[in-house]
């Protein structure tokens, strides 16, 4: 049934949540892009990206070791057949062509997510990249973790009622937050593994670089920071 489509389910959830919240609401999660045109209360969209290989590496080791919030025993139950074994490293994953490191969905996570639910988003990464770029303009702003301070400054300037003081609060709690979310074990990938992953994630890197340049443009327009991006 049409009502069972993931995009409609999430849109209905957002519509219901926003209509019930008289003073507004913050909806946070890992969702693909959804066009909210025609909704009674259209949400303001913001997001944050991380360097694709760094994100992939962190997720790989989190799924085998957990963190302070999720135990190793809990996350190991979520490993699917064909994925790298619990004791294998990211280098092993690449060398042995494990499912984690060959899946097109994992390699093209950003372009697929920001493209949306069109079947072509999952099947054709070049299409997904161009569609994702178009959808970026529907977000108020997308920050990047590698320029967190700049991103927070832009967020605060554009949405002071939501992000006012966020940078100060983050700075005061940074060490605790980083320790709490730190993966229990990680091993840096070899230069060869890094190079292979970066090539496999070329579409995600193209999108990441596009978003970063847009962030610099927005920051420059707002008179924030030292922005060299064009």
From TrEMBL:
Where found, per UniProt? Golgi apparatus membrane
Name the GO cellular-component terms.
Answer: Golgi membrane
Q: Which InterPro entries match?
A: Heparan_SO4_2-O-STrfase (IPR007734), P-loop_NTPase (IPR027417), Sulfotransferase (IPR005331)
Keyword hit for tRNA processing = no
Predominant place of localization: Golgi
Which keywords does UniProt give here? Glycoprotein, Golgi apparatus, Membrane, Signal-anchor, Transferase, Transmembrane, Transmembrane helix
Give the highest taxon in the source lineage. Eukaryota
Topology in the lipid bilayer: Single-pass type II membrane protein
Q: Which GO terms describe its molecular function?
A: sulfotransferase activity
Entry's family note: Belongs to the sulfotransferase 3 family.
Entries under PANTHER family matching the protein: HEPARAN SULFATE 2-O-SULFOTRANSFERASE, URONYL 2-SULFOTRANSFERASE
Q: What is this protein called?
A: Uncharacterized protein
Q: Which organism is it from?
A: Strongylocentrotus purpuratus
């Amino acid at each position: 049934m049409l009502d069972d489509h993931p995009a409609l389910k999430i849109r209905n959830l957002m519509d219901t949540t926003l209509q019930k919240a008289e003073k507004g609401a913050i909806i946070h999660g890992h969702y693909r892009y959804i066009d909210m045109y025609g909704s009674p209360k259209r949400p303001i969209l913001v997001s944050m990206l991380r360097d694709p290989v760094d994100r992939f590496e962190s997720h790989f080791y989190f799924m085998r070791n957990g963190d302070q919030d999720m135990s190793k025993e809990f996350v190991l139950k979520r490993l699917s057949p064909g994925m790298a074994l619990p004791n294998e490293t990211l280098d092993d994953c690449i060398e042995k062509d494990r499912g984690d490191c060959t899946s097109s969905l994992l390699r093209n996570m950003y372009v697929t997510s920001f493209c949306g639910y069109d079947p072509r988003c999952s099947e054709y990464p070049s299409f997904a990249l161009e569609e994702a770029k178009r959808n970026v303009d529907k977000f108020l702003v997308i920050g990047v973790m590698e320029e967190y301070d700049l991103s927070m400054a832009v967020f605060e300037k554009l949405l002071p009622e939501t992000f006012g003081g966020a940078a100060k609060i983050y700075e005061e709690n940074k060490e605790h937050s980083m320790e709490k979310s730190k993966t229990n074990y990680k091993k840096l990938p070899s230069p060869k593994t890094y190079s292979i992953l970066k090539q496999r994630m070329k579409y995600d890197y193209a999108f990441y670089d596009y978003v970063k340049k847009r962030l610099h443009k927005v920051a420059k327009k707002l008179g924030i920071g030292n922005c060299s991006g064009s």
